[in-house]
Amino acid sequence: MATVFDNAMRSGNTQQDNAVPFVAVENVHKTFGLHRVLNGVSLSVNRGETLAVLGRSGTGKSVLLRLIIGLERPDSGSVCIHGQDIAGLAIDRMGEIRKKMGYLFQHAALYDSLTVGGNVAFPMEHHRRDLSKAQRNDRVRQLLSEVGMEGDIEKMPSDISGGMQKRVGLVRALALEPEILLLDEPTAGLDPISSAEFNELILKLQRERQMASIVVTHDLHSAKAIAGRLALLNEGSVVIEGTFDDLQQSSIGFVKEFLSQ
Amino acid sequence: MSGRGFTANANLNPALPVRDNVPVRAVFGPVAGLFNGFFEWFGSLGVFTWQVVKAAVTPPFEWRELIRQLDEVGSKSFPLVVMAGAAIGVIISLEARYSLSRFGAKSMFSSTLVYSVIQVMGPVLTGLVVSGRVGAGMGAELASMKVTEQIDAIEASAINPYRLLAATRILACILMLPLLTLATDAFALLSGWFAQALVEPLSFHQFISNGFRGATFNAFLPPTFKTAVYGLIIGLIACFQGMRTSGGAAGVGRAATNSVVLASLFLILADVVMVKFILVFFS
To answer: How many domains does chain B have?
Structure first.
């Protein structure tokens, strides 16, 4: 049986010009008060590619994701989605771009007044009004079954574990069949087994959907497992960007120190 | 003069201590901070209001959420305003009977009760009761959503939170306040008449016909419909305080408290202006 992810692949939504990166961050600076968080960060991600952004806590990894999805604005530099600079876009125009993006929050950020099924259905209720209620419910069940949670559809977010909340958050991020997936610390707070399962799940989705993904994490094992390319942030700047082997062969002190942890 | 020259000159007078402006800052610093905070708050409120207005007048409209909020603000506040109205009706009835008796004006009882309830007490009481119940509820709910990133999640899902969360709540307050005021007025008059009827015979028909004798729509409609402005104030302040909060559980508590305090304060201040406005244009 074809999954919803297979259907998305066939829908033609992902047929973008490969010459333009799906996400391009160019020389971005961001300061909060007197604290400079990002200091000239440049990154790009293409279709089917997964970039892991690594770094110590407080180095601006999550801020980078929030800039990409437009929840924050850069002080200078540009963030382009499919070649379009999103700086200064009105909230509704930004909404059109966000429909192509999925975001998994670090703490899942599920709507606590809605059930698990309600959380997954929420984006579809607003953007897929062409679907009937029955069709929407079918899609919700199908999406939840992809992460093994079809039996929890009526549960409230407070009644499920942190790992399950993350899975629901991931499914909600995938509900609109995004072309770009942003994952903020997807394995943080999970036990090693759940963490490995979550990595497997992300890899499976990547294979099936060929999205451009950016994964923010300080979990080196997770980054190595799911990303083809890694970027290491320190004090708001990219210290090194490349494959895991590139990082291992680096002679930069901070890179060696980070990998040795 | 170059900066270097200035520095050199300053160094020529080592006996003169560098003036410490700490006492000046100690006096004016907090005042300046207060002023900055005051203007920053109003500036942010202006930007917030503009975002809400833009979201409210452009499709898609969030009808389902609006209906849910109408229920939340209207039906769920109904028992509270009815009880408050009934209580205030009895209080005015008791006070009016005593005061009017002292001046030999007992015949004015019905109209005193009707006018004081409909023109003054009903609207203000409804505004303050709804401000307490709905303002605190909205402020705390939105603040809780804000600190747990649920509002960010709504925005990340390509949904305009000003349209979904703020515009619907504010509109529900604007639409429901006049209706709730009518309920408060009705129960205040009913209980006021009942309290009077227990002491001396007074039929309800007689009470109403005496109370509304010579009354015009202009005497009653503006005070009732001015509560739509109260609704705007309550909804706007509560949504604004809730959606801009930060700082975890303490922030949620602060947002709820500030919503009630500020909404009640602005409501009373607005009433001063509106009473004058109504007297000038509708009397």
So the answer is: 2
Distance from CA of A203 to the nearest CA of B (A): 23
Q: Does the ipTM exceed 0.90? A: no
| pLDDT tens-digit readout, A153-181 | 999 999 999 889 999 999 999 999 999 99
pLDDT of A17 strictly over 60: no
What is the average per-residue pLDDT within B28-35?
A: 81
Q: Does A199 share its domain with A242? A: yes
User: Among residues A223, A202, A210, which one has the least CA distance to residue A180?
Assistant: A210
Residue A77's pLDDT is 94
Coil, strand, or helix at residue A112? coil
Are residues A189 and A77 part of one domain?
Answer: yes
For residue B55, give the chain A residue with the closest CA: A92
Q: Tell whether A17 and A60 lie within a shared domain.
A: yes
B71 touches chain A (CB under 8 A): no
Q: Are residues A166 and A48 in the same domain?
A: no
User: Is the residue at A106 inside a domain?
Assistant: no
- Alpha carbon of residue B181 to chain centroid: 14
The CA-CA-CA angle for residues B236, B239, B245, to 5°, reads 130
Q: What pTM does this model have?
A: 0.85
Q: Is residue A168 domain-shared with residue A185, that is, in the same domain?
A: no
Residue that has been written with the tokens 């999103």 in this structure: A86
Task: Compute how many other C-beta atoms are within 10 angstroms of the C-beta atom of residue A42.
Answer: 15
Is B150 in the A-facing interface, judged by CB distances under 8 Å? yes
Looking at the 3D structure of chain A, how many domains does it have?
Answer: 2
